[in-house]
Amino acid sequence: MLDTETSTTEKLLPIVLWPDPILSTICEDVVDFDSELVQLAVDMMYTMRQSNGVGLSAPQVGITKRVLVVYKDPIKLLDPIVMVNPVISQHGDLKFKYSEGCLSVPGYFEERERYQSITVEWHNVNGFEMSSQFHQLAAFVIQHEIDHLDGHVFVDDLSPLKHNRIKKKIDKTIRHMK
Ligand code: CO
What is the 70 CA–ligand 1 centroid distance (Å)? Predict the structure, then answer.
């Protein structure tokens, strides 16, 4: 997947928790496809795997760049993909319902509907243009991660009452993880 001619060390990156303002930042397009980008992609992939996530966006590790990592098959955790500057160019009419969660909102889930199929255009870490269709859970996760790049977390629009409950839930989950 990644060109690792020179041995690259994987780093576990700390995950930014909601409602940190970094998660509300609209991320910038990547313009330099350099070794720093490759390192970020490697670290994000490692962090996603270690955190048992099925997707991770750069702002969740404190980098406000349009980079995300997902699995093409998120059920079997197969075929990881790094997407740089991803854009949804087409989407289906059908909706796909799933219990939405996020590594930045640990312990909280909310049933959501998203497009059942999407066509995504993106660049790989070497700057090559890529395009593919994604369905069901893979499409769901990519929509969730692209929302992060636009500064949106799936719990943002909920009521203040729910926000307080979510904050308590995060605190409790974090305490149990320690
Ligand atoms: Co998320």
Answer: 11
Tell me which residues are annotated as active site. Answer: 145
- The closest alpha carbon to 63, from 93, 101, 96, 22, belongs to 22
* φ and ψ of 112, to 5 deg: -135, 155
**Confidence (pTM):** 0.94
Determine the average pLDDT of the residues in 86-96. 91
Distance 5 CA to ligand 1 centre (A): 31
**In angstroms, what is the span from residue 55 Cα to ligand 1's centroid?**
7
Mean pLDDT throughout 61-90? 97
- CA-nearest of 37, 57, 72, 84 to 148 is 57
Half-sphere exposure of 105 (CA within 13 A, CB side): 22
**What would you report as the CA-atom Rg of the chain, rounded to the nearest whole angstrom?**
16
Q: Name the β-bridge partners of 90.
A: 119
Mean pLDDT of 91-120: 94
Q: How much is the pLDDT for 95?
A: 86
Contact indicator for 18, 166 with CB cutoff of 8 Å: yes
Number of helices (H), then strands (E), belonging to the chain: the values are 3, 7
Cα of 145 from ligand 1 centre, angstroms = 6
Strand, helix or coil at 76? Answer: coil
Instruction: Compute the average pLDDT of residues 53-80.
Output: 97
